[in-house]
Amino acid sequence: MTSLPVLLTLTLAAPALLGQPAAGSATPVAAGSPTKLATEFAAESAAPERSAAHDDRSDLVILNDGKEIECRVILEAEDYILTRRGSKKKQYRREDIAEIHSVERSLAQLFERYDALSSRGPAELAELALFCEQNELPSEARNLWIQVLTQDPVNEQAWNELGGVYTKRRGWRLKVRGRFYTVDQLRERVSDWKHAMEIPTAHFLLKTDIEPERALNIALNLERAYMTYYEVVGEALALQVFDEVPEVHVFKDPKDYPTPRFQGDEAWFSRGENTVFVNGASPAVANAAVFKLTHALVLNSFRRTIGGNGSIAPWTERALAEAFSYALQVEDGVATWEFGRPIMEYFRLQAADDKPLGMKRVITAGYGAFNNGTDARRYNAECHTLMFFLLHAEEGKYRQGLADYMRSSFKGQSAPTHLEKALGVKLKDLEPQWNAFVEATAAQ
Q1: Edge to edge, what strands does the sheet with 171-176 contain?
Q2: What is the distance between the alpha carbons of residues 246 and 249, in angstroms, rounded to a whole number?
Q3: Is 143 left (phi over 0), alpha (psi -120 to 50) or beta?
Q4: Which fold has domain 59-100?
Q5: What's the whole-model pTM score?
Q6: Which residue of 161, 222, 393, 425 sits 20 to 30 Å from the alpha carbon of 405, by its own alpha carbon?
Q7: Of 155, 167, 195, 149, which is closest to residue 47 (Cα–Cα)?
Q8: CA 202 from centre of chain
Q9: What are phi and psi of 198, to 5 degrees?
Q10: How many whole angstroms separate alpha carbon 320 and alpha carbon 269?
Q11: Predicted local distance difference test score (pLDDT) of residue 12
């Protein structure tokens, strides 16, 4: 797992998560074709109840003495791991452990295998689906079996794994909420939001009425986002994995898209509902969706780790979300994140500003300052440059302090004095360093 220095890499790249065709897939088929119908037929087949994604026996730790421990591995640090069983947590030294089998490790292996495929045909996807079934990833297995059907609509193995029933008179049918549906009946059923598909993943529930081909890609990329988030900031902030189930709702028709808090937002996150709402018809949907998904990841990971329903300082949460949305890249339907470069537009904006907002105003700003008003762009620019400065300046001198501040701010300690204490320096002494860093970076 990546250590603290990876936190320094939070910045730029290119957007595009939603609506990418799967690698090796053909041009999307016309409505009514057997392939599309088979996809819809299978994708609507389950509507799981919202509950914990995994129980406290999902993982297995095997010690050097042969003892097997069924638990949930909630944190892997460099020299120890932390497990949970019921309400009890226990720490084990790495040197005492022979093997670790966890949901997160299985996901990492799945994506490694998926990315290594020379082609993604039915046989290859079926093999991956079987891997998932054997490694505590039932939702990903189901997703992959559906993908098999997008390419081979009469694949008997896939239908059997999905619980399909075949008769000569009606062909394949699937049971949905106590009733068997034919392909045509299911296609009609999922054509509006009230019967939207519900696709579970290892850590999320995706609900959408967009075409299933897009939905299946989004489902896998949600888990890629989860894994990337923990790789980049998890160990640095000692964040425990969460088993709550945030939902992501992607709407085909803008009229069904719930009104966001800030006018014009193409995605927004409801903390109370633990749900990200996305206008799937928007051309800017990819960047917006990842931006708001980061807010969901922050809330659930910090809430699980620290407890309560606090929030990290708005400027730090905004900077993280900005970093993840800009760093996103998609190639052949696979989402990846490339961090490490500054957003030069923001550095140049601040460097050219005759009277920047300043460190104290950025640190104390509420969420509204970043979303609307004449100074919103300046606030966004300066929160990014400040985060980048604290991660990179003087060979990472302030990184650990920044990590400590982010954790303590979730408990309400986000004032400038708390940042000074965490960093070990007064803001009046730090601000000139920040300004010089911004000017030097902008001049590159």
Answers
A1: 165-167, 171-176, 179-181
A2: 10
A3: alpha
A4: SH3 type barrels. (2.30.30)
A5: 0.86
A6: 222
A7: 195
A8: 11
A9: -120, 110
A10: 15
A11: 31
Which alpha helices (DSSP H) does 307-352 contain, by range?
314-327, 344-352
pLDDT per residue as tens digits for the range 118-177: 999 999 999 999 999 999 999 999 999 988 887 888 899 998 998 888 888 888 887 777
Strand partners, 71: 59
Would you state the structure tokens that stand for residue 154, as one six-digit string?
């009469």
Query: Where do we find the tokens 């042969």?
Result: 66
Contact 140, 223 (CB under 8 A): yes
Residue the block writes with tokens 């075949």: 166
Distance in angstroms (rounded) separating the CA atoms of residues 349 and 239? 33
Structure tokens at 311: 């929030």
Break the chain into its structural domains and give their ranges: 4-22+32-51+106-337, 59-100, 344-442
CA angle 149, 151, 156 (to 5 degrees): 40
Question: Is the dihedral angle over the CA atoms 376, 379, 385, 390 positive or is it negative?
Answer: negative
Contacts of 321 (CB under 8 A, 6+ apart): 291, 292, 294, 295, 298
The residue type found at 390 is L
Strands (E), 292-442: 328-331, 334-337
In DSSP notation, 18-32 reads: TTPPPTTPPSPPPTT
CB-side neighbour CA atoms (13 Å) of 18: 29
What is the 8-class DSSP label of residue 96? G
Q: Which of 47, 211, 265 is CA-nearest to residue 257?
A: 265
- Specify whether the CB–CB gap between 381 and 319 falls below 8 A: no
Kindly report, residue by residue over 197-236, the tens digit of the pLDDT: 889 999 999 999 887 778 888 999 999 999 999 999 988 8
Mean pLDDT for 293-300 is: 96
> Going by C-beta distance under 8 Å and a sequence separation of 6 or more, which residues neighbour residue 127?
none
Roughly how many angstroms between the first and final C-alpha of the chain, as a whole number? 32
* Alpha-carbon gap, residue 277 to 280, rounded angstroms: 9
